[in-house]
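Supplementary notes (optional reading)

For those who missed the lab, this is the record we used. Protein: Polyprenol monophosphomannose synthase. Length: 279 residues.
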Amino acid sequence: MKALVVIPTYNEIESLPTALDRVREHAPEADILVVDDGSPDGTGDYADTRAHEDSHIHVLHRSEKNGLGPAYLAGFSWALAAGYELIVEMDADGSHRAEDLALLIQRAEMADEPDLVIGSRWVSGGATEGWDAKRVALSKVGNLYINAMLGLRVKDATAGFRVFRASILRRMDLGKVEALGYGFQVNMTKLVDEIGGRIVEMPITFLEREAGQSKLSGGIFTEELSLVTRWGVAKRSGQLLDAAKLAGNRLRAARNKRRRATAGYRQQRPTGSSRQKRS
């Protein structure tokens, strides 16, 4: 199947060369789309140079740096318009191993046709390198909270290394995506689940960034927590409303049944008085 690896960038001049080399080595049949948000360090110019040298590499320039979510959505739109069947999300910083990329694509191509393949740190066989115990615990607890609030059955809903089938992206209302930062991954997982998409997880090894500066911030985690909480409350409110409607419908049905039974009984009762004649 025709696959496109979407790599968002902002000031990744130190990391992007290695990332492109590794993808081309381990997944040579896949194309690459670098989505650059106007990096002042020359990342976009470097991507253009590589695109001129290699027909498998493409570049989408965006003038506005407004978050990971909008960058990926722009990449998805580009991929769908170009006719790709599989669209991969992958970081530029080396945290996602290109060795795992080929396995994720192979899993997406299998006969059971998963709509979303998540490269998971927390399924059996998954791992992280360079993380302390506190960071591991925070991620696992965060995923437990996400599953509890949203009713998902995914061990790593926050994972950013994943493969979408183009068909599921076309079925989704991408206008409903609210998250700008790393909450985007949870947002997309939620939307796939809501329309009955098939989600599978594959173990990967997540590495610490090799070069450059992390884009993670406290605001990103705050956004994710607040969105998940709001979505969860809305989901439960909807469930309570549905339950109340169902109970009301059953109560009305029972009342109507009793009324019909009472009306039938009244119609069958004899009316007036009858006297027997004496002989």
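If you only remember one thing from this example: The chain has one domain: 3-214.
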